[in-house]
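Q: what sequence does this backbone want?
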């Protein structure tokens, strides 16, 4: 009996010890089964972009693929260094804005070999800076080209002016073709090209005719040129030269001079008329490169003004030359002459310098004229004695074929010198590059079998 009671006590003790353990396990199980509160997932940080120096290849970074936003300067991007593949429109690139420098152009057509734009010849010391060639129409011209003499509908305008006395008020005058005799430099005629635009500046050529011819003669009278072309007015020739692209549009003024008295006196009067009356009038009433100051004196632009004279007008031009290079940089002196003495040479040397150089002097005559060889020889002596002239670079003498001491010769000279005037820049001592002109290949001549009678 005692043994049974003892066993029961042991069982009760064991149960008492197990009950807390079971309750604790149940509590843990219950706690694990309860739903946990929802939590926001933690975002995984993206790795920071590693900065890099672009490695450009043809305008695109080979590392990141970014396309360069070009900053053009002279056709080269300052960022990626790529060259612009120019898209030319009227001589300017539509992509980068670069202006074509026309370093090379075709001599015959004038088309730039880079942008295709037609560019007029521009000379340095008598050689075109674009194609490196001398102007054939100056050095080899023998016959007046028919293209420039064909009448065109694009005609310029002629306006006549009259000054009652030297220094008087200039007023509109009547156009006429009367032979001028007796009065002093009172009339002048102004030619403006077809399409004249007051907003555009124009080069100016002053012309003085021969003895007995007034301001209306050179441009308004029919003058015989040669057998092939017959007669043509000077104004029509200017129209043809401009319309056919031989020369740029310009203003031409034909003026008069005092016919009686010594040439030296006439040159003084002519200079006064030009310097103090005609040139200021042109600067105020026409669109030229010159202007007028507050005192009414002309502010000249000699690189845009030329003087041309025929016969006595050329003789006056030689006397004007030493003291008027501040007015004119270009001189066309046809069938004229000058005093061939030491004093004249000294005056020319002293009057022409680096400040106002002669950019080009064209002297010409007809080979049928009496004395053309003497005129040529004087020009040769002038080149040797004057430091300011270099043959072919800023001075040239050309005798035209089949012409005499008349407007046939003078209009051919006018045709010649207008194509280099306002285009030639004279730089003493500078030798421009000259292009080699290929010699034409001889034509294929078929061989003819000779029969010498032998069989």
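A:
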């Amino acid at each position: 009996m005692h043994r049974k009671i003892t066993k029961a006590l042991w069982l009760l003790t064991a149960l008492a010890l197990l009950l807390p353990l079971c309750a604790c396990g149940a509590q843990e199980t219950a706690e694990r089964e309860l739903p946990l509160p929802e939590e926001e997932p933690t975002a995984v940080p993206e790795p920071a972009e590693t900065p890099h120096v672009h490695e450009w290849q043809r305008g695109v970074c080979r590392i990141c693929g970014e396309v360069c936003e070009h900053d053009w300067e002279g056709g080269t991007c300052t960022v990626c260094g790529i060259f612009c593949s120019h898209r030319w429109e009227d001589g300017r690139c539509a992509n980068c804005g670069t202006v074509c420098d026309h370093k090379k152009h075709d001599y015959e057509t004038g088309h730039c070999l880079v942008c295709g734009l037609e560019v007029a010849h521009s000379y340095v010391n008598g050689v075109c800076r674009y194609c490196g060639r001398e102007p054939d129409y100056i050095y080899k011209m023998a016959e007046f080209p028919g293209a420039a003499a064909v009448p065109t509908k694009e005609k310029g305008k002629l306006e006549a002016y009259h000054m009652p006395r030297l220094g008087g008020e200039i007023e509109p005058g009547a156009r006429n073709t009367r032979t001028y005799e007796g009065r002093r430099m009172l009339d002048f005629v102004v030619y403006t090209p077809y399409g004249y635009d007051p907003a555009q500046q124009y080069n100016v050529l002053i012309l003085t005719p021969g003895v007995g011819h007034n301001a209306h003669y050179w441009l308004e009278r029919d003058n015989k040129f040669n057998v092939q072309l017959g007669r043509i007015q000077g104004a029509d020739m200017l129209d043809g030269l401009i319309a056919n692209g031989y020369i740029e549009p310009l203003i031409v003024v034909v003026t008069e001079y005092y016919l009686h008295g010594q040439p030296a006196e006439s040159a003084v009067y002519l200079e006064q008329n030009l310097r103090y009356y005609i040139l200021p009038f042109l600067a105020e009433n026409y669109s030229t490169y010159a202007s007028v100051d507050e005192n009414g004196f002309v502010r000249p632009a000699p690189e845009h003004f030329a003087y041309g004279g025929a016969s006595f007008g050329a003789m006056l031009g030689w006397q004007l030359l030493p003291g008027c290079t501040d007015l004119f940089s270009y001189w066309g002196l046809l069938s004229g002459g000058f005093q061939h003495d030491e004093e004249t040479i000294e005056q020319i040397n002293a009057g022409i310098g680096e400040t106002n150089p002669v950019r080009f002097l064209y002297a010409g005559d007809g080979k049928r004229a009496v004395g053309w060889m003497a005129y040529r020889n004087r020009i040769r002596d002038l080149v040797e004695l004057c430091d300011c002239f270099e043959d072919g670079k800023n001075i040239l003498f050309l005798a035209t074929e089949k012409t005499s001491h008349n407007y046939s010769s003078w209009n051919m000279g006018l045709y010649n010198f207008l194509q280099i005037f306002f285009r030639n820049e004279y730089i003493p001592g500078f030798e421009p590059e000259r292009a080699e002109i290929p010699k034409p290949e001889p034509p294929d001549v078929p061989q003819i079998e000779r029969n010498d009678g032998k069989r």
